[in-house]
Specification:
CATH architecture of the largest domain: Ribbon
Shape: globular
CATH class of the largest domain: Mainly Beta
Distance between the termini: 39 Å
Oligomer: single chain
Largest sheet: 10 strands, mixed
Helix content: 25-40%
CATH topology of the largest domain: Umud Fragment, subunit A
């Protein structure tokens, strides 16, 4: 990369951040990168990496080609690159389309399911509040596409922290769950815990632990006899950890990761 190319990337990067009306700190947090990386790129002191480009595209719908080469539009298809955004666009007037409290119907016959989101600020009190229906009344919700009504219970959680963020490669960056994303989970009833969990069918799980709070992790092992699961983070700074099922209140298999758009 020539000095001229690097300088132009730096200029476009700064232009992009400002157009999104983000300061360096909030921009970095929502993209799951370091503020120092943002500052150094904008001041032409650091080369932008593929992992950072992927993180920004995932967080804000900004075209990698536009940042690198100035080609095309800055935003990808009006940033309608998340499942939630696509579904919400089918329901322009929610009130008129509501048939019941949980499902929405579009004119073309497609169906969306509303799933309450437990925000970061409410997760500390989740275990004491979740049995009470009033606990969820002030929460926002995401809408996910479904082809039928579901009897299972669904709940989504705002992602906190960087334990599921790894930027060591493009593949790992694409697998990462960045802070501020929403993990949509299907509740796994407790009687299913005492059989071998289908850990290979789901990459991520939400675990409501009695002392550790809300955890979003991978599960790499389930010892049925001992009643222990082994949780795994994508971030190599976090060690694998064994958890006793007796210390867990709820488990959700994560069915979708969506951007926070409401």
């Amino acid at each position: 990369m020539t000095d001229n190319q690097k300088e132009k990337i730096s200029q476009r990067f700064k232009e992009m951040r400002k157009s999104l009306k983000k300061d360096q700190k909030s921009f970095a947090v929502e993209a799951g990168i370091l503020q120092s990386q943002v500052s150094e790129i904008e001041n032409n002191k650091r080369n932008i990496t593929a992992a950072i480009l992927i993180a920004i595209e995932d967080a804000y719908g900004v075209s990698r080609k536009w940042i690198e080469y100035g080609e095309g539009e800055m935003l990808l298809s009006g940033t309608k690159n998340t499942v939630e955004a696509k579904v919400i666009s089918q329901f322009p007037n929610v009130e008129e389309n509501e048939i019941d409290d949980k499902y929405l119907y579009a004119p073309d016959g497609s169906m969306g399911m509303k799933v309450y989101t437990v925000p970061a600020k409410a997760q500390a009190g989740y275990l004491s509040g979740y049995p009470d229906p009033e606990y969820y009344e002030s929460f926002d919700y995401v809408i996910i596409p479904v082809d039928k009504k579901h009897s299972s219970d669904y709940l989504s959680f705002e992602v906190i922290g960087d334990s599921m963020v790894c930027l060591s490669s493009i593949e790992m960056a694409e697998r990462s769950i960045f802070p501020g994303r929403i993990a949509v989970g299907r509740l796994l009833q407790r009687d299913k815990w005492y059989y071998k969990l289908h850990i290979h069918n789901y990459d991520y799980w939400v675990i409501a632990h009695k002392t550790k709070g809300i955890l979003i992790k991978g599960i790499i092992n389930h010892d049925v006899v001992k009643g222990i699961i082994t949780i795994h983070s994508l971030n190599p700074d976090y060690q694998d950890e064994d958890l006793k099922l007796d210390d867990i209140e709820q488990m959700f298999s994560v069915v979708q990761i969506v951007n926070k758009t409401r």
